[in-house]
Every structure is written in structure tokens, then in C-alpha cells.
Amino acid sequence: MDPVIARKTWRTLEPYHGAIYFVPEAAEEYRAVGVDDRMSGYFASRSAAMGPVPASVVIATFFNFDPGLVRRSMDGIWDTVTPQAMIDARLGAADRMIRRIAPDSIGSPDIVEAAGLARKAAMVACMRTEGRPLFAGHASLSWPEEPHLVLWHAQALLREYRGDGHIAALTVEGLSGCESLVTHAAAGDVTAGVLQATRQRTGDDWLAAEERLRSIGWLDPDYGLTDLGAERRAWIEQRTDELASAPYDAIGVEGCARLRSIVRPISKMMLTTFP
Hints:
- By secondary structure, this protein is an all-alpha fold.
- Helices cover 70% and strands 0% of the residues.
- It contains 15 helices and no strands.
């Protein structure tokens, strides 16, 4: 599969899954099982597929969040709630979210078709779990039955499959989590302020990351990418695309195009929930 086509397909479907991190249904479902803090709900619900892992495992697999934030958010969480309860709460939130935002899609022939295509791709990924710990946890979960949730779960799998590959590419380049954020900001895709706020990186962490990237020739004096930095950042993105493309071979170019055409309108509706 052309990695560019695979990336376009993943990107089109990503809001269908990613809205779960912003909608009120998620906070409500997590609160119902005893998790009130927003970031605790985020880390616990997404890491629960790996079992009752300690904060150190979440720090490693989530990569670019402030380690202190993760420790505070995960402190005592598995004494409060079980991983299975968080998994069930998350799926329940996804169900409510989709029914509210895209009610006409529930049970429609198109959503059944899209679910079948996405599941076919995700099942290929499930045969290649080596070196992908967060994905492997999600791959061990049972599939839901309703088509709109099959589609949501399949995209969750493809997302984590891609994410673990992205971390592998960043690690090959020797980047820390904070340094990866600095290169992301320097590339101009997202502002430094947004990345610092959402990952709660302190000023000292950010400055130290900038300094090291300057020392290895990736950043210029104005905190933009040098030619070397741009080249290495492009390699990271290209390698991420390559590592994430194999599952889409199962549905081919036409299947990818069909999947995008079905889900695109729903993803656009989901994007209205993003901050």
C-alpha cells in the first residue's frame, strides 16, 4: 500500500475515534465508575487495555506527556477502578457519542460496509503486535458487535498501531518525548504553546529540549528547523507512514477510497467536538 494513501485513510477516520478524548460522554462515564479527574480518565481509559500497569509503563507508552502529570494522574487509579471497568466505560462513552453526533449512521448500510473494511485492515495489524505494546493491549480486547462500534474500535486499533510505530521512529532518532514536541512545534504544524499546555511540559523541560536540539544541529537560533532538522523530521514522518501502511493492503486502494468516502462526513461532524 502506498504509505500516502494509508495516511490519508487513517487521517480521515481519526476524528471518528479521536472525539472520545473531548466529548462530555467520556467524562460522564468515567465519573460513573469513580474517576473524576479529566487527565486520570484519559490516561486510565487509554492504558487500561494493557491491564493495571504502573505509571512508568504509561509514561513509556504515551511518550511525550510530562512524566509528573502521568504519575499524578495514575496515582492510586487501579485502587479506585478496574481496567475492565474503564474499558467498558470508554466503549459506552463512544456509543453514546456516536449516537448523539451521528444518529443517522447507526445501523445504516454504509456504516456496516465501513465497519467491515476497517475491521479487515485492523485484523492484519493484529497479526503484527511485536514492538507495539500499547497497540498489543488494545488488540487483546474483544470486538464489539454493533457496526458503529466495530468501526470505532477498528480505528482505535489502527491509531495505536500507527502511534507505536511513530514512537519507534522518534526513538531511532534519539529524541526524548519533550524533544519530539519541540520538533513538532518547530515544523509549524502546532504551536509550542498548545503542545506545552496539552502535554503539561514545564518551561525548564522545553528550554532544555530546545538547547539539546540546537546542540545537534536540528534547531536554528529562531527556534525553527534547520535543513538537517527538517530532513530528519521528514524521515520520521515518512517512516511512520511506512510502518503504519501494511494493514491497509488488506482492503486495497479502492477499499481505502470507499472507507474515506463513507466516514468523511461523520468525521467532519466529530471534528466539531475538538477544542
